[in-house]
Prior knowledge:
2 copies of one chain form a homodimer. Chain A contains 7 helices and 12 strands. The first copy, chain A, has helices at about 45-50, 135-145, 145-170, 175-190, 205-210, 215-230, 245-250; strands spanning about 25, 55-60, 65, 75-80, 85-90, 95-100, 105, 120-125, 125-135, 200, 230-235, 240. Chain A has a 5-stranded antiparallel beta sheet with strand order 1-2-9-4-7. A 4-stranded antiparallel beta sheet of chain A has the order 3-8-5-6. In chain A, helix 2 (about 135-145) packs across helix 3, helix 4 packs across helix 7 and helix 5 packs across helix 6. The N and C termini of chain A lie far apart (about 40 Å). Residues about 1-15 of chain A have low confidence and may be disordered. Chains A and B meet through helix 2, helix 3 and helix 5 of A and helix 2, helix 3 and helix 5 of B.
Amino acid sequence: MLVNRQGKLTAVDQKYPIPLTSSNIRAACAQCSLRELCLAVGLDNEDLHKLDDFVIRRKIKRGQQIFRAGDPFEALYAIRIGFFKTDILTEEGLEQVTGFHMAGEIIGMDGISNDYHVCNATALEDSEICIMPYDQLEELSRHIKSLQQQFHKFMSREIVRDQSLMILLGSMRAEERIAAFLLNLSQRMRVRGYSASEFHLRMTREEIGSYLGLKLETVSRAFSKFHDEGLIGVQQKYIRILNAEGLKALLNHAPS
Amino acid sequence: MLVNRQGKLTAVDQKYPIPLTSSNIRAACAQCSLRELCLAVGLDNEDLHKLDDFVIRRKIKRGQQIFRAGDPFEALYAIRIGFFKTDILTEEGLEQVTGFHMAGEIIGMDGISNDYHVCNATALEDSEICIMPYDQLEELSRHIKSLQQQFHKFMSREIVRDQSLMILLGSMRAEERIAAFLLNLSQRMRVRGYSASEFHLRMTREEIGSYLGLKLETVSRAFSKFHDEGLIGVQQKYIRILNAEGLKALLNHAPS
DNA sequence: CGTGGCATTGAAAACCGTCAAAATCCGTGG
DNA sequence: CCACGGATTTTGACGGTTTTCAATGCCACG
């Protein structure tokens, strides 16, 4: 990992492992605006406070990692504010992005199966997470049925998400992948109350390409083409969706 | 879906939904040879019998489906004997295979998130499954900690499996994918006590291609090339691994 | 022994990756 | 505040890999 002058941090600069500092505060799920997106869906106030008892809220700076491949698995992490990527270093030494994650999503579930994480989780902007120690979460979910159910739904949702990415990677051509990617981002922004039609990309073209199984030049070319066709506006990382229907149309007429 | 003369069954021929017949019998997890591969890992005899109480064992004929996309989610299915594929019909009407599943594996977890299944599960040979009604499994896993933990590990393992397929689809070229596929199959056969060096493929070239994001011709060509190079023996669906190290070597020197 | 799915093989085309160069952006230091 | 420099992005030309199209062969099953 290298330094650049734009604030991306080295392994040395990163506070890692996450230190116990004054920025750690107890969560307050009952007051959290993401209550309906997060694990807490459907819990009453009493149960929410039981969650609060062991969930720790923490700020994460851009470039900082929550966990890395090989780290012992200890907790799941709910994103309160911000944007993360998860990636895996392949055996050939290439980084492959496995997901981009926004507020209300939970990361770290890959660690449950083998007691260590298989991917890295890195903040792509200044963020805030809720750390949920897994032993306690497991314990509590044995006592609160709706927490158990929500947790299972989150795991299953991750499986379904991964499978739709498999379909994207296995059956779509480059421009379809990019269109699907933009529409997916747009839709997730909408759910969170942000504008679905204009947003900043927090990741580089290379990271997008890695996620979609494409080279960065191909990503750039697709953006330019969509721009020329009036489907989107592109200014570096700032994207406007000008013709969502047009993007959707690219997905349906699969020439493959 | 079409009939052919080799025993693949049509939707009409299939017994679907799975009927209540005399082929349904109570499971006997304590006696099951897959106890150490399945959800029952680590359970004592008393707890095993609690599982038996609601797990139903059933035979599934080749071509028959356990569930289909859109079906209400009711149960998870442990494979006792046999071989299954899961696939999704994409919006363009193409089938994409999302997984091949062997004895000891659990399918259906995609259904938890939305209360209906998103994929189809089809037997590729005569098989036997254990049906685990989900409500009861969830209930029991609140009372048996090690069952809860095993269940979570299975879900997480599915996530990790999907992610390694994402890496395969996103970063490997055709021959690497085929080599990885063969080695993966081989390894899973070994774990189950079968020969790791020779086995019958239960799926067609087209299904392999669909799974790996390749066309069937590309799969066939890779098989022929590996055959010519002495890495494998190929006679239709019968495969022999002649040089596993040679196959592994294909994975490490990624020219990409 | 014929039929139909499945598999193999070849040739040409399409798509995307590679390589290379130029442009743009942005944080930093002067 | 401006200029510098590295990272990122864009764009072009070319080449390689995989798909597409097409024809043939193979095998299991009736």
